[in-house]
């Protein structure tokens, strides 16, 4: 009986590993070329499969892109949010999250191209919905930290938290665009602390002169 279950278990693990390798290959390839030009033939070649074998793991390109978007969403939020959760003070948590996000992108330059590419596509495909949902969750996290900072009296109570959350994400997106323009996205990590200091100047609680 155990010998009958063993091959099935190995087969399942092999399939899962192949799917994971495919997703990571797509993220890597998106760093080298426009995601819209990425074909299943190129993806299959990258991981050493035929197109037919690739479609055994993903029935169509849409399901592959959905898996990639889901992987990106899980990896990004887990790594970035966990960096914030290590700090009790909201302003420190916001900075840690900002730097972790930029570092994550610098090591995987295909991710911003992929996310922006999905948002620009017409319609409302599953991958696009995942990207939108991820960004909405991210904004809520920033707003929650800003609200906590107001309670802790380290962030000015007059701040527009919704606008600040948009500016927070916009600063990261601006860094990414600049990195793509310069052709050196890995240099973003050096610039990130300076950019965050400029952003944080807008929400710091002014000193009490009394």
Automatic annotation (TrEMBL):
It comes from the Bacteria. One of its GO terms (molecular function) is transcription cis-regulatory region binding. It holds the Pfam family TetR_N. Keywords: DNA-binding, Transcription, Transcription regulation. The keyword Lipid metabolism does not apply. Residues 39-58 bind DNA. Residues 16-76 form the HTH tetR-type domain. PANTHER family: HTH-TYPE TRANSCRIPTIONAL REGULATOR BETI (PTHR30055:SF234), HTH-TYPE TRANSCRIPTIONAL REGULATOR RUTR (PTHR30055). This is TetR/AcrR family transcriptional regulator. It comes from Wenzhouxiangella sediminis.
